[in-house]
Structure to design on (298 residues):
């Protein structure tokens, strides 16, 4: 059984490590925060001092990081992954970043004798806990096959999309749709509230009609409960939508709907950066003087 390294024990990373340990993999970890490290150690993981040391201990190294700047630090910084001997190592990045960032990592890791694959995730913290994540992979088929037993410990829906960067591309398009769907829900439920319609009943109707979507089931109950705890923050979703806009410009494709939704998420990021993306509703509510919530007698 291959030894696994994991960098980034956030709301996604820590439950993924838990599932790797349950599957019997030896797991070594690095993270910024002491609390998740202590939790991982209590579950049977081993701590490394820094990404370089971790990379030299393991066969397959997984990273799950929030921002491109964090990728720069962990991969290219002092005591980073690229300071290690990477011969025969496979590095798999679960972060949501631009395919251009993936290419940069691929080139640098290949020069050090290692292999690289992008493998972004969908399913949120609940999917990470349950081990039912969708994982979309870009890289050589041989690298995907090597990583498959590891991925199967964390995910249920596994896809080899194509070359490095293709997994990230598909993930960014998924998150583009998340943002657009959520913005559309915010508009429709704000309008319904203004018109005096019972939005709980409207949710039930849409759920069995052609306007149904996964975001209806994820977002609207949170808004009705006024629960904006950070599952997937406005800050992170805006980052992904901005990357999608930049990719469209790179390929000469117009995406006006994404641009409009991105503008709304820029406002949500400014005012409610750490709150869940459902807090986009508050931007629409504040503009229109209403609050979308379930009737008090329900």
């Amino acid at each position: 059984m291959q030894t696994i390294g994991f960098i980034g024990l956030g709301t996604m990373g820590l439950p993924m490590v838990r599932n790797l340990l349950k599957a019997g993999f030896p797991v070594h970890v690095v993270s910024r925060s002491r609390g998740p490290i202590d939790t991982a150690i209590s579950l049977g993981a081993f701590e490394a001092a820094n990404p370089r040391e971790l990379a030299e201990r393991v066969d397959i190294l997984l990273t799950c990081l929030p921002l491109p700047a964090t990728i720069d630090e962990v991969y290219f910084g002092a005591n980073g992954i690229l300071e290690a001997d990477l011969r025969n190592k496979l590095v798999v990045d679960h972060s949501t970043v631009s395919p251009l960032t993936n290419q940069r990592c691929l080139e640098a890791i290949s020069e050090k004798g290692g292999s690289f694959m992008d493998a972004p995730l969908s399913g949120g913290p609940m999917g990470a806990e349950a081990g039912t994540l969708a994982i979309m992979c870009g890289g050589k088929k041989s690298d995907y096959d090597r990583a498959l037993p590891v991925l199967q410990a964390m995910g249920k829906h596994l896809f080899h999309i194509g070359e490095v960067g293709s997994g990230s591309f598909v993930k960014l398009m998924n998150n583009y749709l998340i943002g657009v769907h959520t913005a559309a829900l915010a508009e429709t439920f704000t309008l319904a509230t203004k018109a005096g319609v019972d939005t709980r009943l409207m949710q039930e109707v849409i759920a069995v009609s052609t306007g149904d979507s996964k975001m209806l089931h994820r977002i609207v109950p949170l808004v009705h409960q006024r629960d904006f705890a950070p599952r997937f923050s406005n800050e992170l979703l805006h980052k992904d939508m901005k990357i999608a806009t930049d990719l469209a410009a790179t390929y000469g494709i117009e995406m006006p709907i994404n641009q409009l939704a991105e503008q709304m998420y820029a406002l949500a990021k400014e005012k409610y950066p750490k709150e869940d993306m459902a807090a986009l509703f508050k931007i629409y509510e504040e503009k229109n003087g209403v609050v979308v919530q379930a009737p008090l007698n329900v």
Remarks:
- The longest helix spans residues 166-194.
